[in-house]
């Protein structure tokens, strides 16, 4: 029993588990919003082209089964995301953000306020003047007996994401165990250097890296709205375990050269995905400051006094 092959196989199963679930949060996000506009179409198209090149190149090179299985699954999920984007554009057009209908608690004409429009514009206050003023005073006035406390939303969400990543890791290891601890390379496949597969592999790597650029640009416009954070978290874990599954089995020069396109594509993509995570945290923090400026101001004043 080869320990390195065992470890490579286990890491490969964890990577497969990550990539099986990586698209699920985004697909659900699109379904709930009835929109796929959080994704850049160019991002998905380039990703799809890279997955096709990856699949063909991995098959020609006779790479380990992990690579080929993932390439097939990537392609199917890319097509699902594209279908969602264009389906919701055609059949589920979202309401215009410039006109929001104000709901009332009663249908009686006597209870309607004449000065309150039924259609709110950007200049229409969300609350009557008296309520808005009272809310402002409540938020901005520090209370010594009950000081304002910032709710650690990201802390609770972070715990959920960590739990999800831990669950996927354990699921991958369980699948490897159930499969009988099969070692990488047990299927009799032989790695063969092939110029065609190498060209396709490098093409797929370039596409994987390039696909992140339009999504990063898209995030600047949408502030990451409609984009699933879990997609990129699972992608990072999936790529890291994917790279390790290739390197752990052998650090032989010929093996690394043969796998170089797939290693390069995954490693650089991980760094770009971390950049996307940075966008998520930046825009969410900016959004929180805009929503509750008085709360943040009062907390800052309390810290200065302390």
Keywords:
306 residues, mainly alpha, two-stranded antiparallel sheet, 10 helices, 2 strands, PQ-loop-domain-containing protein
Strand content: under 5%
Strands across the major sheet, in which order?
1-2
Low-pLDDT regions: 96-122, 134-141, 292-300, 302-306
How many structural domains? 1
Please give the count of helices: 10
Radius of gyration: 25 Å
Q: Give the topology string: H per helix, E per strand.
A: HHHHEEHHHHHH
- Overall geometry: globular
Q: Major sheet: size, sense and barrel closure?
A: 2 strands, antiparallel
Strand segment count = 2
Q: Write down the overall mean pLDDT.
A: 75
Q: Which class do the helix and strand fractions yield?
A: mainly alpha
Report the helical percentage. Answer: over 70%
N-to-C span: 63 Å
């Amino acid at each position: 029993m080869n320990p390195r092959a065992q470890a490579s196989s286990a890491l490969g199963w964890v990577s497969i588990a990550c990539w099986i679930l990586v698209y699920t949060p985004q697909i659900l996000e699109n379904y709930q919003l009835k929109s796929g506009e959080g994704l850049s179409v160019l991002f998905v198209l380039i990703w799809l082209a890279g997955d096709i090149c990856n699949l063909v190149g991995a098959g020609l090179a006779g790479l380990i089964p992990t690579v080929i299985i993932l390439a097939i699954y990537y392609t199917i999920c890319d097509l699902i995301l594209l279908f969602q984007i264009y389906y919701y554009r055609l059949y589920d057009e979202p309401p215009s953000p410039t006109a929001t209908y104000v709901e009332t608690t009663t249908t009686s004409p006597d209870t309607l306020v004449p000065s309150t429009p039924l259609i709110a514009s950007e200049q229409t206050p969300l609350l009557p003047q008296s309520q808005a003023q009272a809310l402002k005073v409540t938020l901005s006035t520090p209370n010594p007996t009950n000081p304002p406390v910032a709710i650690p939303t990201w802390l609770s969400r972070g715990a959920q994401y960590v739990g999800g990543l831990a669950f996927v890791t354990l699921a991958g290891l369980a699948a490897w165990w159930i499969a009988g601890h099969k070692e990488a390379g047990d299927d009799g496949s032989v790695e063969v250097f092939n110029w065609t597969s190498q060209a396709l592999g490098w093409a797929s790597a370039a596409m994987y890296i390039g696909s992140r650029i339009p999504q990063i640009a898209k995030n600047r416009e949408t502030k990451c709205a409609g984009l699933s954070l879990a997609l990129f978290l699972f992608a990072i874990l999936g790529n890291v375990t994917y790279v390790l599954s290739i390197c752990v089995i052998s650090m032989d020069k010929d093996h690394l050269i043969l796998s170089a396109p797939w290693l390069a594509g995954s490693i650089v993509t991980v760094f770009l995905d971390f950049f996307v995570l940075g966008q998520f945290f930046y825009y969410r923090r900016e959004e929180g400051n805009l929503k509750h400026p008085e709360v943040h101001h009062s907390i800052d004043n309390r810290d200065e006094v302390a």
